[in-house]
## 1
Amino acid sequence: RQIKRLADYQAPAFLTHSIELEFVLDPAATQVTAISKISRQGAHQLPLMLDGHGFELLGIWLNNVPLTDYQQTDEQLVLSQLPDEFELKIVTQLNPAENTALEGLYLSGGAYCTQCEAEGFRRITYYQDRPDVLAVFTTHIIADGKSYPHLLSNGNLIADTLLANGQRRVSWFDPFPKPCYLFALVAGDFDELTDSYTTGSGREVALKFYVDKGNQQRAVFALESLKRAMLWDEQEFGLEYDLDIYMVVAVDFFNMGAMENKGLNVFNSKYVLANPQTATDVDYFNIESIIGHEYFHNWTGNRVTCRDWFQLSLKEGLTVFRDQQFSAAMGSPTLCRIDAIKTIRTAQFAEDAGPMAHPIRPEQVLEMNNFYTVTVYDKGAEVIRMQHTLLGQAGFRRGMDLYFQRFDGKAVTCDDFVQAMQDANERDFSQFRRWYQQAGTPQLRVTSAQDDALASFTLTLQQHTDATADGSPKLPLVLPVRLELISLDLSYRQQHLLVLTEERQSFVFEQVPANVRAVVLADFSAPVKLLQQISLDDLLFIAANASDGVARWDAMQQIWSDLVRQSVVAAHPVLIPASLLAMFRQLLDQPLDDLEFTAELLALPGFDTLAEQYPQIPVDSILDTLQSFRQQIASQLTAELTRCYQRLPRQPYQYQSMQVGIRKLQSLCLGYLAQAISATVISQKNAAADSDVITQLLQQHYLQADNMTDRQATLTAAVQAGLDLAQPLLLDLLEKDGHDPLIFDKWASLQVSLPTEKVFELIENIVNYPQFSWNNPNRVRAVFSAFSHYNPQQFHRADGRGYQLLASIVGKIDHSNPQLAARLVTPLLSWKRYDEARQLLIQQQLGQLRDQPGLSNDLFEKVARSLS
Ligand code: HT7
Ligand code: ZN
């Protein structure tokens, strides 16, 4: 198994300037003819090395003469003694029907579809499958026009002819040189949704969405989102779309969320299709954000691309940052930020603390697919955000303008990006670059001292990053720290941006009145773990008074996290303090205008977030404490929760912020209320009455719902509280809408979140439904990712049954779809973070996986690193 290293990067010895591809489509024997124009780069006699994998080679021609003098290995074709400039023709044959890995050309529900990032193009033909070889692509697709009326590829349509044998031949030309990972082909019979967009400079762009038959109207929201994204990128960054047509195809078999192929995005149908009956508010949010993300890649990724795959964060971190800014502009910046912070605090902090820890620019890779991670994407976006914070909006824009001016049409590095930011603003970012080479989550320790006599306030910040599994160096980083000082009487407020560059620095503020409280790391201005000791009263003060909504929410999170810690130390759940309950009462009785934000303030942190606060995760204590807190809230605030729920008006569904807030707050109330009747926590006197009222509320909420968000809210509350009413309602959902794959997935995910042992029986049952398919990543994730991520009680069972189930599924899936298997295995990798008994149980499962014959590189890399 061959590890690739960033340090070994070498510029390509040859360049491919253009490639003309012809596909004659056939499910089991598609023929691909590739004619490339290639030239030697520099004076050398190195051979041309082409990557290829998993197809049959039918022939090679050099300048139209058959070539037989070549070497072929499992993964490469080596051609020696070539002229300086030449034309190479290669004919290959592929079997898309048997391609269950969903890389290269495959069939998805009867439609042909490609996925070439990161290294899927080599499954189509022999080619220099690396992002720094940019060629102009022409694509011809030949197929039966009746079965496949839509024959699509990148760029603009240039020809469409009927052949003598009744087949159709459609040709596309993409004038923008691109790396082969951006190549795409789709052939199928779809419903089409069409619109157009006129760019700021007056060019008309045709917009076309292709979806499964009958789903045309479900693509309307995605199409509207696309137009919003196109306008936003023009207004925010001055970036216009460049081709005559922008196409989006939705497919059901897909390994990730979506793919930004030039002019022809391919999407997981989950992130295109939406109507109120099938999609939740969260789905609508995700669709807008992912549609934006793929569109923004047209400039950050396609026009300027990566030199090598170690630079992945160049396009992904930057594009996530751009999609986050877009979502913030379309809705609430605070809520978007809270969303992003949750991802960092759960998955990213866990990755940093586990065996797969890597910097946002990794230095070595066995399987590239394993590095499409929350670190590269989301921490990468935080690193871009810090540059934005340090430079300000105008400075960041200057940097972006220079970046495009310098690198449009080129394949570049993360360093090139930072250099543009630095040069455009005449700043020195040399220390900042450490963020690209250093893995791990910095801890930021805060202490403060107030000197009333001198009217000064001193804040001391200290940073430290623990060693990580990859052994990368740990030097002091540049940490932008947003700070607000507020006096207790609210007469004084000052906001500052501190920049910590040393291991320890003190910042002194003069003319500060007595009794000031510091809000540190407002807006989560750096992706760090904040360590500060603050009293409950001060946290409640910050939660009520900080100017920054994120800081207010964060103060509530810290309160809960402190209470969980106290419970872990005491070995039993503590009582929720009266002052905290009083705050809940106040919020429930007078919800803020922003109801969605109120719901966030009233929500407990999840198991994953809390777990990341402990080097060794006290699984049972955290779970017991969370359960106790939910029940304490439910029993003490039953009346307030019921009142809050009942006061909120329900209206015919629209995806609109006021309504989203109502639904979220009602859902939160129902979640707590369901807990009130899940155990004998209500006083005997009121038990029967409360129980009836709450059961009725839940039932009505489901039955009267005109949308999926409310239905899902009831079902989640009922399943998690283990209520009897859950099963009949789930059956109702399945019987009415379970034929729709996306609803089936929701139904399955709800079932597997049941926190009792019965869940194993349910899982066995789900995989036997005709709607379930082991070859469809959405189906598999709906069951097994949902189980391992959203059912910590059963996944972390002390008898190991949860671990065993996941490991057996991972082992099975690895034969058909290694990329999917390697993603599913993630929750098992951090076994060292659990108690000894659980460590042994997980280790045993990982050991069996490692020894499985024919293990993929994808899975091997992760399991081996975890066990080393
Ligand atoms: N750039 C894409 C990353 C990707 C991918 C997408 C779909 C299937 C497999 C994939 N491998 C890598 C997605 C994005 O970040 O926009
Ligand atoms: Zn992306």
Note: The chain is about 40% helix and 20% strand.
## 2
Amino acid sequence: RMRIAVLTSGGDSAGMNAAVRAVVKAGISKGCESYVVREGYEGLVRGNTAPLTPRRVAQRHLPPERLARFSNEALVKNLSFGEGPALKEGAGDADDDEEGGTLKGRYIVQVGWDDVRGWMGEGGTFIGSARSATFRTPEGRLKAAHNLIKEGIDGLVVCGGDGSLTGADRLRSEWPELVQQLLASGEINEHQAALYSHLKIVGLVGSIDNDMALTDLTIGAPTALQRICEAIDNINSTAASHSRAFVVEVMGRHCGWLALMAGVSAGADYVFIPEQPPKSEPWEEEMCEVIKRHREVGKRKTIVIVAEGAHDRDLNPIKAEKVKEVLSNVLKLDTRVTTLGHTQRGGRPVAMDRILPTLQGIDAVNALLEATPSQPSYMIGIRENKILRIPLVDAVQQTQAVAAAIEARDFAKAMGLRDPEFDQ
Ligand code: ADP
């Protein structure tokens, strides 16, 4: 029986819970044991140091017929999260047990079918996400490898952004070396070294930014876009009523997808994105000209969207406050800045952020079951509405190539790499 673990890493995004649910349920239904790793790579590095909390902690809260459907650790997880079906029905606070009902000291936890019930429509990630500095170090990754082998995990699904998948690719490429080191230091025996000589790892892209190359859509991006649209719709009504200008700053890190798509969906006048800065210098003139034209043809409101990573052709950041100053001073528009902040991260996933993680989560499990040492590790993507497997290393490299092209101020190349259909 294969043991499959899933973790969520980096910035949270809507649909991560649905991804975990899909991997857990697909794993169990295909005869595997399903595990979750709490707190992203940090949990992998910390592993399990405390013994399993006894089943009787849960027995106090659950009727026996329900109990049978949970694994030992899963019961503890439900008590600790306080979110699962068990606690909703039962009473009691896990912390009042003298032996402790929490998951303290346990990061790699087996879960049962019922543990992920109701997770499909919930935002964020229940199993926690973290940014792990330790996992960036060789010692951290060695500990992570050791913990995976100790817990007998032979398949790992990582759901995260480009950073997390870069980390996954790194773990994959270093794996044979890590196993040899663990063997040499006596942490694992010959049998384990042979059994775990090949790391089966699959990436799911969970990111609100839609910033991963070689896939059309990342888990969480549609929900973030939806939230941004709703916010701009609200701004639009007041802007039109008062004939005002609004500058809206949206998230996206180094990627302009959210800003660009929000601009299209909300009828913005001007959008600043990192991949394609304004064509002329200084950018102020170009923007003012466009907005003036829109006002002249009768538009009562002005919306300018500034992506988080926007900059001019010399890579100087373009910030919302600066844009506001220009609109106020040059065009004499009554201008306000709106920063949407963390509301953009999502909350309840829209339908697409349930469909995408579900279909991709199932394929992630299939990819693990079919993995052979001679094949590359995959990232599960979607292109032209088809779920497909893309070599993880290619996706990571191409994403880095986009960043490098922007850094080198080759903006046409950046757009072309991000979107091969892009036509200057
Ligand atoms: P995201 O996955 O949302 O892009 P980060 O870039 O913060 O978020 O990456 C999440 C985590 O992935 C980091 O905290 C780190 O543990 C791991 N990671 C990122 N890049 C690397 C890398 N080059 N090598 C090893 N681990 C990495």
Note: The first strand starts at residue 3 and ends at 9.
